[in-house]
Specification:
The chain has 2 domains: 54-309; 316-407 and 448-482. 45% of the residues lie in helices and 11% in strands. It has 18 helices and 16 strands. The strands form 5 sheets. A 5-stranded parallel β-sheet has the order 5-2-1-10-6, sandwiched between helices. The protein has a 4-stranded parallel β-sheet with strand order 15-14-13-16, sandwiched between helices. Strands 7-9-8 form a 3-stranded mixed β-sheet. The chain is globular and about 90 Å long. Residues 1-17 and 33-54 have low confidence and may be disordered. The structure holds 2-acetamido-2-deoxy-beta-D-glucopyranose (3 copies). The site of one 2-acetamido-2-deoxy-beta-D-glucopyranose has 5 residues, from α14. Keywords: Glycosyltransferase, Membrane, Transferase, Transmembrane, Transmembrane helix. The chain crosses the membrane at residues 21-40. This is O-fucosyltransferase family protein. GO terms for molecular function: glycosyltransferase activity.
C-alpha cells in the first residue's frame, strides 16, 4: 500500500509538475497576448507594418542619397553645425536635409570634454520630435529662411532638400498636412511621424538599406578628411584614468577619415539616408572635439567650400533691416555693445563685461563729439537696468544716446513678415512648392529674427564693437565686421 501510495504521490506530483509547465506556457502566451494588445492597439495602426513601410525609403529614387544630422543648443551653435553639415554632405556626395532653427536650448548635447553627452539616437529623436512640434504649432522656420545659402547651392556641389519635403517623402505623408491648422495633425498622423522619427534615429536597427544611423560621437571619434595619418589612429585627447574609472569608459578616441568610413567604399554608402548625431565641434586641449577638417589641400573643390562656409550671410531681408536701422534711425557714427548678462556662465562675469564697455566709452569721450551714440543688444530687460552700469548710461543723457531694438518694433515685425513671405527654405524642395508655400506662410507665426538684425546693426558700428568674452554671438559679429558686410 505504501508503495502504491508513493507511486500515486509521484504520479500526482508529475501531473502537478506537468500542469505547472502547461500553466507556465499558458501564462507566457497570455502575457505575450497582453503585450501585443497593449503595444499594438489596433491593426490599422500597428507598429510593425508601419516600421517596415517607413524603412523602405520607397518614395526616393534609387540614386538619391541624403544626409541628416541633429543640431542643438542656441542659434550660433546650430549655425556652426549647419556649416559642418554642408561640408560633410559634399564630401560624402549626399543631399543635405536642411533642418529648422530649433528653439534656444530646446535640445542639449552635454559636454564632450567631460564625456557626458546624449547618445546620438536620443539626440536625433529629440531633434526630430522638436522639429515636428515646430511644424505642428506653425512656428517652423528653416535654417535657409534666415541664412542665405543660394550662392552655395548654385556655385558649389551642395545639394539640399527642405526638412518638410524630406519628411513627407520619408514618412509617406502628404505635405499639405504640415500647413493645415494644428488640429488637422491628428493623433494618428503624429504617431506615424513619431514612429518614422524613431526609424531615422536608429532606434529600430541602426543600419539597413534605408537608414544608416551613425553611432560614432565625440566620445569615440574625431572625423578627419585626407589627413596623412593612419585611419583609426589615436587622438591626442583621451579620457584620463580617473574619468575612465568613474564613468566606466572602456573606449579610446580615434581619428577616422570620414570619406573612408562613411563614403563610397563603406557599408554606409548603400543606405539611402545617412543620419548623423551632432555635428558640433570645438577646439579642446590641442585637438578638436568631433570634427577636424579645416583644410583639404588635395581636394580643390572641398578646399574652396571650406573657405566659402567660413562665413554664411543672413538673407537679404534681415541684412536690409539692420542696415536701414543703422542708416536711418541711429544716423550718426555709433559704437555697438553686445552684453550677455543673464545666460548661464555669463551672469558671473557681469562686472568684467561692463568694464570693457566702460573703457571703450572713456576713450571715446576724449575724442568724439557728444553725445556718443551706442547701440545696445543685451538679454537684460530694460526694467532691470536700475543699479547697473547700463542704468547709469541710460540716465546720462547729456553725453550718451542709447539705441535699442525690441521684438515689438515695427522694423523687426516688418522684416520678420518679409522673411516669412519669402520662405526661402521652401525653394529647396524635391518638387515645386509655390502652392504649399502660399498656404503655409499665411498661418505661420512670425519668426524670431531680432538677434540676427541686431548682429547686422553691430556689423555697421563705425566707432567700434564691444562684445561679451566667450559669447558665440560676439564671434559672429566680429566675423561680419571682418567681412565688411555692412558696406556691401
Ligand atoms: C554624386 O551623386 C550624384 C547624384 O546621386 C551622382 O550623379 C554623381 O555621380 C555622384 N558623384 C560622384 C563623384 O560619385
Ligand atoms: C528683473 O526685475 C524683476 C522685477 O522688476 C524681478 O522679478 C526679476 O527677478 C529681475 N530679473 C533679473 C534677472 O534681475
Ligand atoms: C536714473 O536716475 C534716477 C534718479 O537718480 C533713478 O531713480 C533711476 O532709477 C535711474 N534710472 C536707471 C535706469 O538707473
Amino acid at each position: 500500500m505504501e508503495g502504491v501510495n508513493r507511486l500515486r504521490k509521484k504520479q500526482t506530483s508529475t501531473l502537478l509538475f506537468r500542469s505547472n509547465k502547461h500553466l507556465l506556457i499558458l501564462i507566457a502566451l497570455f502575457s505575450l497576448f497582453i503585450f501585443f494588445i497593449f503595444f499594438f492597439p489596433n491593426n490599422n495602426n500597428s507598429l510593425a507594418p508601419n516600421f517596415l513601410k517607413t524603412t523602405q525609403c520607397f518614395n526616393f529614387q534609387k540614386t538619391q542619397k541624403f544626409l541628416t544630422y541633429a543640431p542643438h543648443s542656441g542659434f550660433s551653435n546650430q549655425l556652426s553645425e549647419f556649416k559642418n553639415a554642408v561640408l560633410m554632405s559634399v564630401i560624402l556626395n549626399r543631399t543635405l536635409v536642411v533642418p529648422p532653427v530649433l528653439d534656444h536650448h530646446a535640445v542639449v548635447l552635454g559636454s564632450c570634454p567631460k564625456f557626458r553627452v546624449s547618445d546620438p539616437k536620443e539626440l536625433r529623436f529629440n531633434v526630430w520630435n522638436h522639429a515636428i512640434e515646430l511644424i505642428r504649432t506653425q512656428r517652423y522656420v528653416s535654417m535657409a529662411d534666415v541664412i542665405d545659402i543660394s550662392s552655395l547651392v548654385s556655385e558649389s556641389a551642395v545639394r539640399v532638400i527642405d526638412f518638410r519635403h524630406f519628411v513627407s517623402l520619408f514618412c509617406d505623408v502628404d505635405i499639405n498636412y504640415f500647413c493645415s491648422k494644428g488640429s488637422k495633425m491628428d493623433d494618428s498622423l503624429l504617431e506615424k511621424l513619431r514612429q518614422c522619427g524613431s526609424v531615422l534615429s536608429g532606434h529600430i536597427g541602426a543600419i539597413n538599406e534605408c537608414v544608416y544611423a551613425v553611432e560614432e560621437d565625440c566620445r569615440t571619434t574625431v572625423w578627419t578628411y585626407q589627413k596623412d595619418v593612419e585611419n583609426g589612429a589615436l587622438d591626442s585627447f583621451q579620457p584620463d584614468e580617473e574619468l575612465k574609472r568613474k564613468k566606466k569608459i572602456s573606449f579610446v578616441r580615434r581619428r577616422k577619415d570620414v570619406y573612408e568610413t562613411l563614403g563610397p567604399r563603406s557599408i554606409a554608402d548603400s543606405a539611402t539616408v545617412l543620419s548623423f548625431g551632432t555635428l558640433f565641434t570645438s577646439p579642446y586641449k590641442g585637438s578638436e572635439s568631433y570634427i577636424d577638417i579645416h583644410e583639404a589641400p588635395k581636394d580643390q573643390k572641398i578646399q574652396s567650400l571650406i573657405n566659402k562656409i567660413e562665413f554664411l550671410p543672413f538673407v537679404t531681408e534681415i541684412l536690409d533691416a539692420g542696415k536701414a536701422y543703422a542708416l536711418h534711425t541711429i544716423k550718426s557714427p555709433f559704437v555697438c555693445a553686445q552684453l550677455r548678462l543673464l545666460d548661464g556662465q555669463f551672469k558671473n562675469h557681469r562686472s568684467a563685461t561692463f568694464q570693457g564697455l566702460k573703457q571703450k566709452l572713456d576713450s571715446l569721450r576724449q575724442k568724439e563729439s557728444l553725445p556718443i551714440h551706442i547701440f545696445v543688444m543685451t538679454d537684460l530687460p530694460v526694467s532691470n537696468w536700475t543699479g547697473t552700469y547700463l542704468g547709469d548710461l541710460a540716465n546720462d543723457s547729456d553725453s550718451i544716446k542709447l539705441f535699442l531694438l525690441s521684438e515689438d518694433d515695427e522694423l523687426i515685425k516688418r522684416a520678420a513678415k518679409k522673411v516669412l513671405d519669402e520662405g526661402h527654405g521652401w525653394n529647396f524642395g524635391a518638387f515645386s512648392s509655390d502652392g504649399i508655400k502660399n498656404v503655409c506662410h499665411r498661418r505661420q507665426k512670425l519668426p524670431d529674427i531680432l538677434l540676427h538684425v541686431e548682429e547686422t546693426v553691430c556689423s555697421c558700428a563705425s566707432l567700434g564693437f564691444v562684445g561679451t568674452a566667450g559669447s558665440t554671438i560676439a564671434d559672429s559679429i566680429e566675423m561680419m565686421r571682418k567681412k565688411q558686410f555692412c558696406s556691401r
